[in-house]
Amino acid sequence: MAHPEEIRIVLGPIPLPKAISLAKWIERMGIGEQPEGLTLGYAIFLDCGLNIPKGLLVHELRHCYQGEQAGSLNGFVCQWLSEIAKFGYLDAPMEVDARAWAWASVLTDEKSNIWVLKSLEARKKGEVQKMTPNIQYQSARSQK
Questions:
Q1: Is 80 helix (H, G, I), strand (E, B) or coil?
Q2: Is 15 in contact with 45 (CB distance < 8 Å)?
Q3: Which is nearest to 94 in space by CA: 64, 134, 122, 123?
Q4: Beta partners for 10?
Q5: If you ran DSSP here, which 8-state letter would residue 71 be given?
Q6: Per residue in 94-129, pLDDT tens?
Q7: Which of 7, 122, 136 has its CA nearest to residue 65?
Q8: DSSP-derived 3-state class of residue 42
Q9: In Å, what is the CA distance from 24 to each residue of 19, 44, 63, 114?
Q10: CA-CA distances (angstroms) from residue 141 to 12, 28, 104, 109, 137?
Q11: CB neighbours of 108 closer than 8 A, spacing ≥ 6?
């Protein structure tokens, strides 16, 4: 990644479009009503509390890299939306790639493996649920 120092993680509700037609399209593509993560450029939005699943974080970091490769936020979003429209969320190449990186990062971490498997299974069934293993991360402020 060319500029890892630019990455910012924002904890809390994911900003989703208010337009009903776009919201319905997002749901129809299998993304779900309220995803746990969303990456826009170098901004990673996570809605999973302070127990951030390693697999989810790596998945979103991979989207940061993909954004760099696309050359711009607009280029990334256009490619991502096109792939989802053509292949569906689960089979979109950018999503397959991000899941592969997430999977590879958690192979030795049983709790994260469970999160990845449950997340994929829930998405295949059309279920969206909060699944957060007990992986602890501390902010720099809490260590002072």
A1: helix
A2: yes
A3: 64
A4: 45
A5: S
A6: 999 999 988 888 775 555 555 555 555 655 555 443
A7: 7
A8: coil
A9: 9, 23, 23, 29
A10: 18, 40, 30, 26, 12
A11: none
Residue 40 identity: L
pLDDT in tens, 31-75: 666 678 889 999 999 988 888 888 899 999 999 999 999 999 999
What is the model's pTM? Answer: 0.70
Q: Which of 33, 60, 36, 61 is nearest to 46 (CA)?
A: 36
Q: What are phi and psi of 53, to 5 degrees?
A: -65, 130
The 3-state DSSP class for residue 12 equals coil
Q: The tokens of 130 are what?
A: 């909060």
Map out the domains of the chain as residue ranges: 7-131
Six-digit token string for 111: 């709790």
Give me the residues paired with residue 44 across strands. Answer: 9, 39
Angle 5-130-19 from CA coordinates, rounded to 5°: 75
Please tell me the distance from the alpha carbon of residue 10 to that of residue 13, in angstroms, as a whole number.
9
Q: How far apart, in whole angstroms, are the C-alpha atoms of residue 56 and residue 119?
A: 10
